[in-house]
Specification:
The chain is of the alpha/beta class. It is about 35% helix and about 20% strand.
Length: about 325
Amino acid sequence: MTPIPSEDSRNCEVAVIGEVFVELQSTGASLTNADSFTKQLGGSAALVASAVSALGSNVCMTAAVGADALGTFIQNALQQHEVDVSCLQYSRDHPTSVVFKARSGKLTQALPYRYADWHLHSTRENINRIQNCAIIYGSGYILWKNPARHSLLELLRVASKAEITTIFYPYFESTLWRSRSDAYAVLKKTLKFVDIVTPTVEVAEHFFGKQSHEETVKRYHDMLAKNVVLNLGNDGCLVSKGNSRINHLSPPGPVNIDSPGINEAFQAALLVATQHGKELETATRFALAAATYASQKNGPELDLPSAETICQEILQTSFEAL
């Protein structure tokens, strides 16, 4: 596994660690009946990195692709979004991961072929880069299997030891894990190195089952989470700093959390606001504003403007004044 050569080696303010793949998407028909697909950049972490760049922060992407044409496509797509790819790795043994998606009405089908993305390795170069970042974001999509699991844990551990702020999205899909108890143990171990955990209510329900939102927040704290931002979609967020008080924040407008890229817009905005020193509640309000903006401008791909534009259009204030 070797880093892809890159001329872009600037110091990054934000490091994103996670999955990236090629998404082949069809609309208007099921996967069975689809006869054409559009190729685009895929992977929640990759979309978060692209959105962080659009919002105005320097960001580097740590992920693994194949040493093939699709890996080059991903490298070029990230660079077009001004994402630093100097920590991208490519494998000669595993092809670039691909996910087929078909959307017909409210029905979405996905067929993943995951290869290189979970073959991410923790390298000295990656460790050196994250130690010079202001904030680290980890995606739970790669936590299900080694070596990516070990690599993510190691990079979060190094960041935590260096007192670098860490944010983690605890994605969970039961079919990827040997057992729920295995997933629970790994997530609990991960949260020791995380400052802010940012689940959606759907992810939390898949992991814990149906319960009250307040009980969900408590369950994450029981797993050693320091701060919890539970994304409720159109109902806003619950924000907890580990004390008995849980704050409910409402979005400034409708948020369609089921639309592609909305959660990634939220995660990216929370990253950028936290990187700029905003308090957790303030950073969450900005994240809700970004999700509102993305819902209003919803298109086939996530396309955010600068943080200042979102503040002016959605919150009628400047980013500095938040």
